[in-house]
């Protein structure tokens, strides 16, 4: 099954071009805009993620179908209530997936790709991981709830398409009720920041209410500095894709204690054993 987001790719590329041209004709000194090598890298990462992601979707469909057969009931696609349950459950699953991928280093090694640009524009949305296998456990419960697998894949695509439009500096803050309920470019700029005030905040997909509920929300205030706390300074797609896996492996090899090896792998990014422990 080809995910719906695949068909949106030509429109994504067109909108990247339109946004890039907007910086040429309507420049803003406070916005980072585009840089050719950075954009090419982002698009290369996006293309690679699609090549790897398509066969992986087949594996995910099989897993969802197996879980769906074990569900005690099957929700009807003809019911509006099913779609509402799916929307909320998918968005909560995305929040859990996203938060875990910032707090567990082996998961962060996959997700860090998306945060590796020091710029923030629509092309950044295309800078995706080449190791999508870490996502499956977070959506399996939806199939166990009785949601048909094709509906899960469709809603995942809807969420990704929505999130594409969050990656821009060209849109300021929106109407307050919208900012309160939905994830917006302002909220997502905070998420991509390396400022200490903003680190590990605003994990939401379509909704921002989960961040408010679980106290991970921070509004945009001080100017955002994009990228990582330690930027990798490379445009090489292979290094972008796998640099954190390599760094975690080096850290694990440095210690003989299995407790410390586990910490480097499953602890939060930046974890290190305490001196003298």
TrEMBL record:
TM ranges: 6-26, 47-68, 80-97, 136-154
Membrane disposition: Multi-pass membrane protein
Recorded coiled-coil stretches: none
Subcellular localization(s) per the UniProt record: Endomembrane system
Chain ranges of the Fatty acid hydroxylase domain: 83-215
Pfam families, sorted: FA_hydroxylase
Keywords, ordered alphabetically: Lipid metabolism, Membrane, Oxidoreductase, Transmembrane, Transmembrane helix
Domain of life the protein comes from: Bacteria
PANTHER family: ALKYLGLYCEROL MONOOXYGENASE, STEROL DESATURASE-RELATED PROTEIN
Name of the protein described by the UniProt record: Sterol desaturase family protein
Protein's organism: Streptomyces tropicalis
Highest classification ranks of the organism: Bacteria, Bacillati, Actinomycetota, Actinomycetes, Kitasatosporales
């Amino acid at each position: 099954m080809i995910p719906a987001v695949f068909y949106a790719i030509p429109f994504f590329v067109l909108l990247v071009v339109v946004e890039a041209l907007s910086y040429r004709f309507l420049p803003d000194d406070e916005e980072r805009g585009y840089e050719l090598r950075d954009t090419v890298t982002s698009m290369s990462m996006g293309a690679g993620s699609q090549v790897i992601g398509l066969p992986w979707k087949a594996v995910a469909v099989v897993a969802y179908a197996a879980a769906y057969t074990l569900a005690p009931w099957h929700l009807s696609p003809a019911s509006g209530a099913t779609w509402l349950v799916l929307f909320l459950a998918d968005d909560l699953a995305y929040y859990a997936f996203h938060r875990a991928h910032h707090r567990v280093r082996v998961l962060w090694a996959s997700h860090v790709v998306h945060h590796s640009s020091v710029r923030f524009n629509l092309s950044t949305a295309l800078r995706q991981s080449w190791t999508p296998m870490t996502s499956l456990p977070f959506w399996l419960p939806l199939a166990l709830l009785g949601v048909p697998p094709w509906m899960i894949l469709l809603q995942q695509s809807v969420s990704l398409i929505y999130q594409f439009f969050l990656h821009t500096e060209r849109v300021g803050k929106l109407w307050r009720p919208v900012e309160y309920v939905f994830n917006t470019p302002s909220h997502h700029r905070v998420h991509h920041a390396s400022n200490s005030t903003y680190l590990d905040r605003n994990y939401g997909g379509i909704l921002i209410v989960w961040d408010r509920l679980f106290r991970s929300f921070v509004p945009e205030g001080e100017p955002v500095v994009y990228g990582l706390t330690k930027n990798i300074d490379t445009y090489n797609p292979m290094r972008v894709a796998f640099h954190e896996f390599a760094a975690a492996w080096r850290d694990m090899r440095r210690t003989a204690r299995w407790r410390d090896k586990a910490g480097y792998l499953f602890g939060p990014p930046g974890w290190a054993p305490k001196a003298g422990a």
